[in-house]
Amino acid sequence: SVSLNDKDHTLDAVEKIKYLNNSPDTLFFIWFHLWPNAYKNDRTAFSDQLLDNGRTDFYFSNNEQRGYINRLNFHVNGTVVRTEDHPQHQDIIKIVLNTPLVPGGSCEIETPFHVKLPYNSSRGGHKGNSYQITQWYPKPAVYDRKGWHPIPYLNQGEFYSEFGNYRVQITVPEKYVVAATGIESKPDQTHYNQLFTTIYQQNNAHDFAWFADKRF
């Protein structure tokens, strides 16, 4: 579930994941992408790639134009877990499982998170009060026969990500129109305290993105 603050250009959210280990290996940790941190400063893979390609707009942007994700507090099966920063990339983190995840097993992962949306200089963010919410939530990296694939956010290139079933509750100030991945569950639409809440669902999807604008 996620709420948009259109004054501060921020998101406040809670994520709950049922993670399935479909591999033949026991997992002792899970790498997570924190891709909003690609916009945190000029020392990210995203910033370096833009400079390599001759773009300097992000490198010389100010703090107001940048973004990040924070206020994370990962729990697995209801118990807090230890996290470790990636040695190179600010937009990747490792959660260390208290109990190893055996082949065919599953676990429940939950965390709150807060995102400051950047000015849109790549795939997502905002331009004024037009919002393009992409690569916005903590997302597990892929584990396949070659091992883990923790990949930093890049402007040029595609994402190697897991598929999942999504149910996302979105709350925005009234008068915004939301466009999102999947099918809108209209019976769940509610209006309260000048806020509008709706739910979108999609199974077997590579990612979940949503947009919000009063002019749609």
Give a structural overview.
The strands form 4 sheets. Strands 1, 2, 4, 5, 6, 9, 15, 17, 18 and 19 form a 10-stranded mixed β-sheet that branches. Strands 7-8-3-12 form a 4-stranded antiparallel β-sheet, with no helix packed on it. It has 1 helix and 20 strands. With 216 residues, it is mainly beta.
Describe what is shown at a glance:
The protein is mainly beta and 216 residues long.
Describe the structure using short key phrases.
216 residues, mainly beta, ten-stranded mixed β-sheet, four-stranded antiparallel β-sheet
What layout of secondary structure does this protein have?
Blueprint: E1 2-5, E2 10-20, E3 27-33, H1 45-52, E4 68-70, E5 75-76, E6 79-80, E7 82-85, E8 92-101, E9 106-116, E10 125-127, E11 130-133, E12 139-140, E13 142-144, E14 147-149, E15 164-173, E16 177-180, E17 183-184, E18 190-192, E19 195-205, E20 210-213
Parallel strand pairs: 1-15
Antiparallel strand pairs: 1-2, 2-9, 3-8, 3-12, 4-9, 5-6, 5-9, 7-8, 10-11, 11-20, 13-14, 15-19, 16-20, 17-19, 18-19
